[in-house]
Predict the 3D structure of the following.
Amino acid sequence: MLLRLRDLHKSFTGAEGPVPVLRGVDLDLEAGESLALTGESGSGKSTLLHLVGGLDRPDAGSIALDGARVEALDDSGRAALRRGTVGVVFQQFNLIPSLSVGDNIAFQARLAGRHDARRAMMLAERLGLAPHLSKYPEQLSGGQQQRTAIARTLAARPRLVLADEPTGNLDETTAEAVLGAMLELVSETGAALLMVTHSEHHAARMGRRLHLHAGRIA
Ligand SMILES: Nc1ncnc2c1ncn2[C@@H]1O[C@H](COP(=O)(O)OP(=O)(O)OP(=O)(O)O)[C@@H](O)[C@H]1O
């Protein structure tokens, strides 16, 4: 098992005290699987991805990822996790403005010691970025920036890709193509994909789907 979540709890502090968001989430994900996470707005989907990616800590429960206990890692351990095992595609693309698109795509892979120029070029072609490699992020459209962020994550060949509505900024035709490319690229490397989506249609293309409701997997 690549990822195993057990009895995960997380609350945030509101005006009238703690507001529980996750109330005992259990989830298993094997290498090579793709899983869609659905749920109404505010149900805690992004919170769950942040906990798995080591961007925030649970109040209770365990996150076992590729043999590591994510909730117990210190800051440097969590940073190492994000450099090596986990790749994130979140709604903020966090591209580096001073680097070209090509260098942005290679950035994560270089940090992970896995840069491969041919793979980077193949990803750029598959995601329609080949004509834009020498441009800078500010010269790209929102959708092109989003695809650059996806290419950057996949170029580093993480064991687990966490994606929060990765096609949210794209028109339906481009979204279909990008989702198809993501599924193929993830399965080619034997990685797993955990993707938040509001689209029934996209959820149906994933291997499995789970629905978050009232703080638990329904
Ligand atoms: N850092 C935070 N501080 C306080 N409250 C937070 C924080 N992050 C999330 N929340 C609250 O936790 C709840 C779940 O938020 P989350 O972003 O995980 O939902 P979501 O299911 O991803 O929603 P959406 O589909 O709208 O993106 C919301 O009520 C939100 O306001």
The mean pLDDT is 94. Residues 12, 21, 39, 41-47 surround adenosine-5'-triphosphate (CB under 6 Å). The radius of gyration is 17 Å.
